From TrEMBL:
It is a single-pass type IV membrane protein. Keywords: ER-Golgi transport, Golgi apparatus, Membrane, Protein transport, Transmembrane, Transmembrane helix, Transport. It comes from Seriola lalandi dorsalis. This is Golgi SNAP receptor complex member 1. InterPro entries: Golgi_SNAP_su1. The lineage of its organism: Eukaryota, Metazoa, Chordata, Craniata, Vertebrata. It holds the Pfam family V-SNARE_C. Component of several multiprotein Golgi SNARE complexes. One of its GO terms (cellular component) is cis-Golgi network. The chain crosses the membrane at residues 225-243. Belongs to the GOSR1 family. It comes from the Eukaryota.
Length: 244
């Protein structure tokens, strides 16, 4: 039992040591990625100066990425060994405490893995963006040098390209609004048809209601005719009185 307990303590020591190393490495890795992000925001005149040092920084970050992946793999292996130990016959009396400790180490591993992948993803996204901007800049410089005095044309071309992109966005927004309006109108038309169908069904089902509605419509029509006749007579009498 003592040997088994010592084995568990050795695994815990290995796990804590790997966790401490990962914590320090992840802090350094995050700081390097932050400095990489800051350097990528320099203006274009400093971009060429940064290119040589940037390649060195890329190599350091890639090396740290590999090292962190190895540390995470080692910590995962230690956690797996701890999980196997909890299933070993003879340790059931301490199983609850062991499982609690194992779960805590698993949570730490999950947090470190999530943080590593998040920082790594940000780094590679920044590097791809920087490579793309550098490629575009080189293409523009090459075009300028080959065309001599065509700087004005290049600027006009870039402005026109930006105008086209803005136009595309406006067209997409207009299409989206039109589609939403069409769906809304279709929905309202369906609702009106449904209401009309229900009213017709109700009228057919209850003839007395249908007859009452018809009488109301006839009375309204009669009242309208009477009111129109009275207004017409009054208008004629008013005109006769005015001109005589």
């Amino acid at each position: 039992m003592a040997t088994s307990s010592n084995y568990w303590e050795d695994l815990r020591k290995q796990a804590r040591q790997l966790e401490n190393e990962l914590d320090l490495k992840l802090v350094s890795f995050s700081k390097l990625c932050t400095s990489y992000s800051s350097s990528s925001n320099w203006d274009q005149q400093k971009r060429d100066i940064r290119s040589d040092s940037g390649s060195t920084q890329d190599n350091v970050l890639i090396a740290m990425t590999t090292e962190l992946e190895q540390l995470l793999a080692n910590l995962t292996a230690v956690n797996d060994k701890m999980a196997e130990y909890t299933n070993t016959p003879g340790v059931s009396s301490h199983n609850a405490a062991l499982m609690h400790t194992l779960q805590r180490h698993r949570d730490i591993l999950q947090d470190y893995t999530h943080e590593f992948h998040k920082t790594k993803s940000n780094f590679f996204s920044l590097r791809e963006r920087e490579d793309l901007l550098g490629s575009v800049h080189r293409d523009i410089e090459s075009y300028k040098s080959s065309s001599g005095v065509n700087n004005r044309k290049t600027e006009l071309f870039l402005k026109e390209h930006e105008h086209l992109r803005n136009s595309d966005r406006l067209i997409d927004n207009a299409i989206s609004i039109a589609m939403a309006t069409k769906e809304n109108i279709t929905f309202q038309r369906g609702m009106l048809k449904s209401i009309q169908t229900r009213v017709t069904t109700l009228a057919n089902r209850f003839p007395a209601i249908n007859s009452l509605i018809q009488k109301i419509n006839l009375r309204k029509r009669r009242d309208s005719l009477i009111l129109g006749g009275v207004i017409g007579v009054c208008t004629i009498l008013l005109l006769l009185y005015t001109f005589h």
